[in-house]
């Protein structure tokens, strides 16, 4: 669930800004954002954040984001400048700065049916026939 939330946050930011700043297609932007999220989750969130602190993980997210976006832009021949790639990586890093402590501290709880029932919220009543 943490990965899905990270993918939604980072994917929305990266996809929107890549399409705004460059000639990237929607599919290319979503693919790049998904690859970036997978790498960032496995490397930064699972290794760096757990062994260091949020500031180092945020800087690592920004650097990783810049590198992945730069490689994608040069590979796919997007019309995006290094400064615009920096802006996308910076905004993604800022979102990570606020997202990571909440998600990995357990303060964000994603409701599941079992948690809702345990909290005393009843199941949806069945329709009468």
Automatic annotation (TrEMBL):
TM regions (residue ranges): 20-43, 55-73, 85-105
UniProt keyword terms in alphabetical order: Membrane, Transmembrane, Transmembrane helix
Protein name: YndM family protein
């Amino acid at each position: 669930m943490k990965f899905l939330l990270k993918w939604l946050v980072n994917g929305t930011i990266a996809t929107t800004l890549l399409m705004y700043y460059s000639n990237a297609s929607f599919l290319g932007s979503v693919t790049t954002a998904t690859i970036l999220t997978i790498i960032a989750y496995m490397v930064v969130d699972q290794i760096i954040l757990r062994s260091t602190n949020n500031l180092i993980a945020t800087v690592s997210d920004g650097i990783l984001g810049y590198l992945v976006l730069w490689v994608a832009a040069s590979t796919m021949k997007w019309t995006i400048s290094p400064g615009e790639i920096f802006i996308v990586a910076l905004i993604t890093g800022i979102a990570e700065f606020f997202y990571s402590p909440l998600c990995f501290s357990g303060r964000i709880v994603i409701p599941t049916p079992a948690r809702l029932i345990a909290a005393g919220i009843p199941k949806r009543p069945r329709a009468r026939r």
